[in-house]
């Protein structure tokens, strides 16, 4: 069907939508210290209260589960279709051109923390409910706009919703990713590999330190050893000798842990530089493991965990943080696998590979594989809406990252950003083109209408 009437109705609501977004963005809903009625702090609770009040003002049924998750609902029917978003935001940070809580519009761009991630889309979805209701469009499933308040810090909000017996949607999407639609999010597996030093190196290694986070390619890594170590300086490798110590610093290039091939790992670079310098014992074994089983590969082939799938890509392995002292060795691995990867095989193989070098590999956390077939009802409906509304012929995408969609079965990320747009989410000067914002809300409205049909 065409969506002319729905599109027109959404444009009629534009001023109301932007006014409500402005009210929400003005609330600094960064996670804070818990209070009696505000488990994630005062800011997220105020943003939750604002959204619920908006739903009530518009005449919808609302729900609030322990001030962690709220929802607004319309329609009748046994089954429920869901739009899942969140009202918490990352810290404002420095370097804004315009006030981060003001929603000022400059050169057609609305600036503010949350305009894209994810307050704008949540407010857009609430008004899409109003448009569907006001037009009297027939639906078979109830539509529920669910909004969490802890997505940016681990999504404990929707975890609580599920554990407390919150109603499960039959179908749904989260406007917390990108268009056209993300049909696959690789399985995620985060590891800590450790060892207590029992057999020190004959070259005394005082410290090795590098990396900023487990899901970032190590951008810089530093090793300090006792004595005069003969290490050749090279591109990105500097060697300093002072106070009876040798300090080797490797500079690499950071990249997201889901795309390690886009970076240059400084820890790997450092270990390549010192591999023939006589470092042995337990530190030497750790270096051997990293060079022999990971090296400059980013697909896990030497670890024997490389799965390749034409549709959803291949395994990625990222060495993130390295932190070693005279007593302890420690590094992290971020492993992501496509739809033909096997989680249990991965776990068993990783433990075995580390044990062969005398180290312990512990699975610190993981994210499940999300895969919804391209020919499923959900993907077909979302893609049809996207093509009808944009005239574009983009194809569904698979990513290594994870989105809010993993909270529920039969849910995927759909919008709000369009292909080719700069990535400003979590950055200073988070902003959105106001025309594209409205287009994205028209797409959300049409998609909500379609997934509410059986």
From TrEMBL:
InterPro entries: Bact_exopeptidase_dim_dom, M20A_pepV-rel, Peptidase_M20, Peptidase_M20_dimer, Peptidase_M20A. Keywords: Dipeptidase, Hydrolase, Metal-binding, Metalloprotease, Protease, Zinc. It comes from the Bacteria. Its cofactor is Zn(2+). Pfam families: M20_dimer, Peptidase_M20. One of its GO terms (molecular function) is metallopeptidase activity. Residues 247-357 form the Peptidase M20 dimerisation domain. GO terms for biological process: L-arginine biosynthetic process; proteolysis. Gene3D superfamilies: 3.30.70.360, Zn peptidases (3.40.630.10). NCBIfam families: dipeptidaselike, PRK07318.1. Belongs to the peptidase M20A family. This is Dipeptidase PepV. It comes from Sellimonas catena.
